[in-house]
Amino acid sequence: MESKPVIILGGGLWGSLLAYRLKTALPHISFKLYESSSSLGGNESYTFHGTDIELSAQIWLRPLVTHSWNTHKVRFPKYEKLLENSYHLISSDRIHEVVSKTLTSESLCLNNEISARLALDEGSFVIDTRNICGYKKCGYQKFLALELELEEPHQIKEPVLLDSTISQRDKLRCIHYLPLSETRIMIKDQRYSSNKELNLHEMKNDLMKIIDFYDWKVKKVVKEESQCRAMPISSPKFRQEGRVINLAGIFHETTGCSIPAATRLIDQMVATSFRLGELKEVVSNFRKETESDRRFLRFLNRYLVESVPEKQHCFFQDIYQLPKPSLERFLRGSPSFLDRSRIMLGKFAH
User: Fold this and answer.
1) For residue 105, what is the domain's CATH number?
2) Is 129 among the domain residues?
3) Structural domain includes residue 311
4) Total number of domains in the chain
5) Residue 322 in contact with residue 342, Cβ under 8 Å?
């Protein structure tokens, strides 16, 4: 008699990456991925810096990467900086295309939402990747992104991130520009706010003002993405017991990026025999090992949302004046004690 499959709940970034890595690294493991919508990856494009993840993870992640750039810029009121660090984009469309082709029809179940209780009846154990967890929040990170096809070249050569030279909204507002081709660009309005209201009409009008500023003639809006996620100031609360492994609430609490933590933990998981007890120990140890880093990031969330406007607008401007190794560790979500001291004291080296 065949053993029951492992059940993975949620086909967003975490669930899709886990299923893809499991299928390619441990093909003998039987599993089934459940996703409530008709596609994998969610309605979001995911980005990461080249120094965010290990080289081994970059290799297995490569088929999912849509665009890569060797350099990128940041733009603040006091300065603009070119960073000699690669930057990468993974679209939800590419996630769906690659992962759905990699998995068999028996291991992928779309348009099907199932509870952990019912999943336990079907599987040997459950890995729940859905971001369902309770924690105290101090604010929200929200964005609207438009992928545009223009009539003429946009002239932007490398990604421009965190442009906060524009008119401010909420607690902090910044714009991201990702050049996808000579005439295609993704422009993203990202805001840090004390409320979760996602006013897409206002945000779209604000983006149109930027488009008009550059005198871009829009031929077609290829895609629209939006999201609002909570900024936690406490660790997640959930029941981690029995045959359920919960991966909720593991991400960079300040930037919202999930890929560094996801690739690191997933690689640790597939390095095991993929049995329940061993996996629970790996996940538990990962949470314990990263809690100090994540507690500091949660503190920064409170500072970012609750400080006076002048300090809010300088937050990333100051962060990007850290020495290069310190900046890279912060973006990975693992700042050292010295990094934290530099951030708190405001002694950033130019």
Assistant:
1) 3.50.50.60
2) yes
3) no
4) 1
5) yes
> Each residue of 140-182: pLDDT tens digit?
999 999 999 999 999 999 999 999 999 988 889 999 999 999 9
Residue 30 falls inside a structural domain? yes
Tell me, letter by letter, the H, E, C secondary structure of the chain: CCCCCEEEECCCHHHHHHHHHHHHHCCCCCEEEECCCCCCCCCCCEEEEHHHCCHHHHHHHHHHCCEEECCEEEECCCCEEEECCCEEEECHHHHHHHHHHHCCCCCEECCCCCCHHHHHHHCCCEEECCCCCECCEEEEEEEEEEEEEECCCCCCCCCEEEECCCCCCCCEEEEEEEECCCCEEEEEEEEEECCCCCCHHHHHHHHHHHHHHCCCCEEEEEEEEEEEEEEECCCCECCCCCCEEECCCCCCCCCCCCHHHHHHHHHHHHCCCCCHHHHHHHHHHHHHHHHHHHHHHHHHHHHHHHCCHHHHHHHHHHHCCCCHHHHHHHHHCCCCHHHHHHHHHCCCCC
CA 14 distance to own-chain centroid: 10
CA distances from 79 to 73, 210, 216, 317 (A): 11, 20, 25, 8
**pTM for the whole structure:** 0.94
The boundaries of the domain holding residue 259 are 6-43+52-63+92-135+233-293
Neighbours of 116 (CB within 10 A): 19
Encoded amino acid at 36, one letter: S
Q: How many of the other CB atoms lie within 10 Å of CB of 104?
A: 8
Residue 57: inside a domain? yes
Which residue is associated with the tokens 């550059």?
A: 214
pLDDT tens digits for 234-274? 877 666 668 999 998 899 999 999 999 999 999 999 999 99
